[in-house]
Design brief:
By secondary structure, the chain is an alpha/beta fold. The protein has one domain: FAD/NAD(P)-binding domain (3-Layer(bba) Sandwich). The chain contains 13 helices and 17 strands. Strands 3, 4, 5, 10, 11, 12, 13, 14 and 15 form a nine-stranded mixed sheet that branches. Strands 1, 2, 6, 7, 8, 9, 16 and 17 form an eight-stranded mixed sheet that branches. A hairpin with a 5-residue loop joins strand 4 and strand 5. The protein binds flavin-adenine dinucleotide. Flavin-adenine dinucleotide (FAD) binds next to helix 2, strand 3, helix 5, strand 13 and helix 10.
């Protein structure tokens, strides 16, 4: 017997790598169905993540079913959107579906507690170094121990050490520097309407602002890595680029900042991703990331978790046919998300180019139905 095999001591039906929204939702659903589930998360809860923290209402029923009460947490419901162009044109209208604001600090932590209560073995501070498919089982390698599972779900977000380890398509063919983005988030105290989300455009990026719990305002922006490189530091870039948008300048100069420094993330790209590789089933951003300005990534991550949960349940209850599981999951995922991702990529490409954004916002101001149509095409139905 090899040393590797001797070290394998824990066997689970399902292993989930990554404890963000998709991983936690999937783990809770499967534990409730009675499966043995282990979830590996490299960080410790609660934690702040780069995210605009606006969730479209399509997920409200699902989040409530998971055990989170929006009423009890006094979460703001968001019904209006305001969009500014870099030159200062401002359009405002109601949102077709709307959303709510909740910090990832609170949301992910609440889900982690529910997962543990439902019987998920949740290992925090446990990065997975490798996953190997061998004799119809996955061998999951952490620094402390190796684990074995029948199903492995990759829910490790936009970019992880494992993407590199698995040589995923977007690692082998990296995005051009203009298509490589960074994200920055702050929590602020400032006067801001509870039912409003604003999207402010600036050169090579845009910034979302909306309320979360406890009268906190979340401000989160995305821009190109090139923009940061050009100005050297985040502060310098903000002063030289974001401040040119008068709305952003006002917020930056009048708000009280609640973090000592911003939460940041680098190497974001929107390339198409494989949905299954080495028999690992990808979910959430690991399967595909929608442009943040669609305000819909979190709903997609949770919705994908429900789709995957029913496919994996079918697999265990029926024929243990891995090929059919993989085929069905890819098909149902594409049916639900392919068009949205396409529209999101198109919008991401258009916004941030000063000339185009000024024209688009200027024109759309007079055609609210088109704005509604674009928003509808990036959103799904309640699930
Ligand atoms: C700038 C920006 C703003 C956004 N704003 C919004 C918004 O307002 N509304 C919205 O709906 N969506 C928004 N999104 C998208 C949203 O944040 C994501 O779609 C969502 O977080 C996806 O959840 P996930 O579970 O797939 O990944 P994540 O939430 O990123 O979770 C992945 C987890 O995997 C863990 N992990 C990674 N590697 C390993 C490893 N090797 N071992 C163990 N654990 C590992 C990570 O620590 C992390 O906890 C935004 C995204 C960006 C970039």
């Amino acid at each position: 017997m090899s040393t590797f095999t001797q070290n394998l001591i824990c066997l689970y039906q399902i292993a989930v790598v990554g404890g963000g929204l998709s991983g936690l939702s999937f783990a809770i659903l499967m534990a409730r169905k009675g499966y043995s589930v282990i979830l590996f998360e490299k960080e410790t809860y609660p934690l702040h993540r780069v995210c605009g923290e606006y969730i479209s209402l399509e997920s409200l029923d699902f989040i409530t079913q998971l055990g989170i009460s929006i009423d009890a947490l006094k979460i703001p419901i968001i019904k209006k959107i305001g969009i500014s162009s870099p030159s200062g044109t401002y359009l405002s209208q109601s949102l077709p579906l709307g959303g709510f604001g909740i910090s990832r600090y609170l949301l992910d932590y609440s889900l982690a507690k529910i997962a543990t209560k439902e019987g998920v073995t949740l290992l925090e501070k446990t990065p997975v170094n490798d996953v190997i498919f061998h004799n119809n089982f996955f061998e999951i390698d952490t620094s402390n121990q190796k684990y074995k599972a029948n199903i492995c779900v990759g829910a490790f977000g936009k970019r992880s050490n494992l993407d590199v380890r698995f040589n995923r398509n977007f690692i082998i063919n990296p995005a051009k520097s203009k298509r490589n983005f960074i994200g920055v988030k702050y929590h602020l105290k400032l006067p801001f309407d509870n039912d409003l989300i604003e999207l402010h455009n600036f050169e090579d990026g845009y910034c979302g602002i909306s309320r979360v719990e406890n009268d906190i305002t979340c401000m989160c922006y995305i821009t190109t890595a090139e923009n940061l490189k050009k100005y050297g530091t985040i502060e310098n870039m903000e002063k030289n680029v974001l401040f040119k948008n008068e709305f952003l300048r006002k917020y930056f100069t009048t708000a009280t900042f609640l973090f000592a420094k911003p939460v940041t993330i680098a190497q974001i790209n929107f390339s198409e991703k494989t949905l299954v590789q080495n028999h690992i089933l990808f979910c959430g951003d690991s399967a595909g990331l929608i442009a943040p300005l669609c305000g819909n990534g979190m709903s997609m991550a949770m919705h994908a978790a429900t789709l995957l949960a029913s496919e994996v349940d079918f697999y265990f209850k029926n024929d243990f046919n891995r090929a059919i599981l993989e085929k069905n999951y890819q098909s149902v995922w594409r049916k639900n998300f392919k068009t949205r991702l396409f529209v999101g990529r198109w919008i991401q490409y258009m916004f941030g180019k000063i000339f185009i954004t000024n024209i688009v916002v200027g024109v759309l101001k007079y055609f609210p139905k088109i704005v509604t149509l674009i928003i509808k095409n990036t959103h799904g139905k309640p699930f």
